[in-house]
């Protein structure tokens, strides 16, 4: 029996937006008048931890109120025919809730928290609220398990290794402008089919060799799933 082809997906905020999750991009880069620098940097947490915790509490609370959309379910269904690895810039768990088994979170996970002093001490948060005074087992304040601006992206090494093994590459819901994630396209083997599902896809993406589906992920990913199954499936 031939091996299943390996589909690697790079997913971004547009995939989650289809489930109703708000993004910085939707709000013009602001959250209730605060810039990203106010709520998503280590300096912001040191300066005003209450504000930062409240920002992520509200994001987490909203996450409990939404469900995966058709795009998430299409990617999960691909597992019936291909080996599928998802590399996501999103911090929600909608891919997992839809049924995807292999998900690499480049920017962390909203439902997890970690020690502000010992980053290896990570745990799942019960409920949506993280408060000042919530401490790790070594007595230090817990913080969101999120990669903030200016921090390293530990999962990049694993993501690059996964991309190196791709037989088919899909980009969905991201502008390919946010680095280091956008650089993963350079880890894709030469000559493999690459697809781009996003309403803002343009000729620049086409020039990079991506086959474009210029629509949102909730509509485009199910259609692409059917095309891939028809064209490439090996079982």
List keywords for this structure.
20% strand; three-stranded antiparallel β-sheet; six-stranded parallel β-sheet; alpha/beta; 235 residues; elongated; single chain; 11 strands
In words, what does this structure look like?
With 235 residues, the protein is of the alpha/beta class. The protein has helices at residues 13-17, 36-39, 42-47, 49-63, 70-77, 94-98, 156-164, 203-207, 217-232; strands spanning 6-11, 30-31, 34-35, 83-88, 103-105, 108-115, 122-124, 142-146, 168-172, 194-197, 211-213. The strands form 3 sheets. A 6-stranded parallel sheet has the order 5-4-1-9-10-11, with helices on both faces. Strands 7-6-8 form a 3-stranded antiparallel sheet. It has a two-stranded antiparallel sheet with strand order 2-3. Helix 5 packs parallel to helix 9.
- Give the beta-strand count: 11
What is the helix content? 25-40%
Integer average pLDDT = 91
Shape: elongated
Can you list the strand order of the major beta sheet? 5-4-1-9-10-11
**Mind telling me the C-alpha Rg?**
18 Å
Largest sheet: 6 strands, parallel
Distance between the termini: 8 Å
In N-to-C order, the SSE pattern is EHEEHHHHEHEEEEHEEHEH
| Share of residues in strands | 15-25%
Structural class: alpha/beta
- Unreliable stretches: none
Number of helices: 9
